[in-house]
Task: inverse folding
């Protein structure tokens, strides 16, 4: 039996030999979601040789590994992570930052393993696999168009919950590190929008996923056109603030872009009407998140009654046009998720939703105003985090954004004040919890919104 075959056919022996290295390396990765909790065990879900191992060059192993950690329930199977491990006899100095460690025993005894995406040769191989669709062990590769060969890869440092590679400034590959059963919205929704003819979202060029077996395949990575030279809305907003310049023209265009995407999604995928039980369930979820945040951040406590009133209003309110409608939405829309290309067009990216939430929740239909509330909060963030920020600047942007949305959708989000206020409140509560945990110096930004939204009649 060759060394390649023995590695592929001995996954039971492979994982125990990697466990000491993964214990030390995995919690340090910025995309690892379980920081602050001990790792109690690993389970190997699958292993695939993307590049067979030999004695002369590097190999590339694709692993899906389930990580056990203490959690709210003892029955949780643990989070599943996608690992791409390079394997060499010795690591060259240029790849030293990617080192995971030397394997002491097992099928890879004496070999060095490292983060494979940091190796241009192995990263190029991943694109080559996408160029040739079809199954490879438990994996399946698909594409919609022909992909050129020989595109040089580079890793983007900006990603937090995933990893991204740019190939020749033509394509960007997002590798989902935390893997869930089912289609990832960052593939599902752009594909639906492309079929609907919506040009506001870069259409997927290729992707890879688990074979699915008897269940639904899990999305592992998506390749899309790379909008080289584009600028995101957050950068442009901060530049406008620094120059003391109005941003309402851009904000109105962003509103129109959001409405165009929502309209296309509503036409491409099922929608539903939210009955009383739906809205009550929606309000209860918001109240539960408020209670949890207030326990973690005591400075929220004085504002809880006023904030809860916004959620209670939704439970008893009705849309001015009848029942509220729910549909697939972006799920995590803010200024950083909209790009202005070099030709001046706006594109929406990153449809994954909030990565910390379960995939089933992220794929659930929601009122479109949820995305609107996220963008309104983003204007407020830009104004309050900049040295020359002015809340009136944010208010003008908010009004322009809603007006632009109404231009394209025919309905103004401000015509549903109870629902808009509830979603903006829910987002601000989330921001308070996030900033308290990760960026305490930024906590005053969402707390300013909390004070406004907790007032009996919210004021600008």
Result:
């Amino acid at each position: 039996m060759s060394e390649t075959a023995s590695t592929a056919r001995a996954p039971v022996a492979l994982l125990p030999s990697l466990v000491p290295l993964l214990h030390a390396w995995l919690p340090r990765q910025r995309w690892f979601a379980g920081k602050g909790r001990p790792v109690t065990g690993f389970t190997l879900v699958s292993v695939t040789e993307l590049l067979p191992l030999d004695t002369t060059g590097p190999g590339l192993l694709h692993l899906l590994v389930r990580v056990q950690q203490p959690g709210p329930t003892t029955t949780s199977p643990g989070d599943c992570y996608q690992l791409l491990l390079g394997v060499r006899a010795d690591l060259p100095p240029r790849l030293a930052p990617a080192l995971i460690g030397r394997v002491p025993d097992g099928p890879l005894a004496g070999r060095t393993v490292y983060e494979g995406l940091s190796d241009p040769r192995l990263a190029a191989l991943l694109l080559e696999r996408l160029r040739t669709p079809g199954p490879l062990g438990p994996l399946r590769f698909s594409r919609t168009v022909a992909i050129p060969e020989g595109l040089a890869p580079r890793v983007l440092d900006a990603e937090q919950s995933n990893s991204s590679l740019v190939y020749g400034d033509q394509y960007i590959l997002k590798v989902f590190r935390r893997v869930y059963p089912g289609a990832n919205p960052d593939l599902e929704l752009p594909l639906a929008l492309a079929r609907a003819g919506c040009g506001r979202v870069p259409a997927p060029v290729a992707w890879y996923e688990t074979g699915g077996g008897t269940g639904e395949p899990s999305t592992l990575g998506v390749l899309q056109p790379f909008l080289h030279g584009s600028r995101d809305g957050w950068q442009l907003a901060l530049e406008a603030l620094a120059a003391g310049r109005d941003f309402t023209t851009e904000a109105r265009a962003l509103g129109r872009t959001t409405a165009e995407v929502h309209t296309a999604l509503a036409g491409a995928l099922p929608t539903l009407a939210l009955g009383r039980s739906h809205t009550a369930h929606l309000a209860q979820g918001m109240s539960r998140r408020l209670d949890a945040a207030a326990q973690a951040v005591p400075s929220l406590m004085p504002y809880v009654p006023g904030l809860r009133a916004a959620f209670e209003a939704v439970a008893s309110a009705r849309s001015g046009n009848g029942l509220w409608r729910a549909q697939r939405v972006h799920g995590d829309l803010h200024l950083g998720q909209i790009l202005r290309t070099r030709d001046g067009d706006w594109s929406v990216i990153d449809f994954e939703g909030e990565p910390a939430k379960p995939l089933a929740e992220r794929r659930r239909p929601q009122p479109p105003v949820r995305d609107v509330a996220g963008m309104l909060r983003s204007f407020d963030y830009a104004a309050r985090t900049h040295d020359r920020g002015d809340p009136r600047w944010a208010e003008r942007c908010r009004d322009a954004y809603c007006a632009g949305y109404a231009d394209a959708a025919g309905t103004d989000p401000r015509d549903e004040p109870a629902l808009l206020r509830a979603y903006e409140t829910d987002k601000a509560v989330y921001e308070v919890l996030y900033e308290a945990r990760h960026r305490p110096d930024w906590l005053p930004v969402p707390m300013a919104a909390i004070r406004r939204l907790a007032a009996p009649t919210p004021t600008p």
Observations:
- The radius of gyration is 24 Å.
- The chain has a mean pLDDT of 91.
- The first strand starts at residue 41 and ends at 51.
- The chain has three domains: 1-115, 119-226, 231-454.
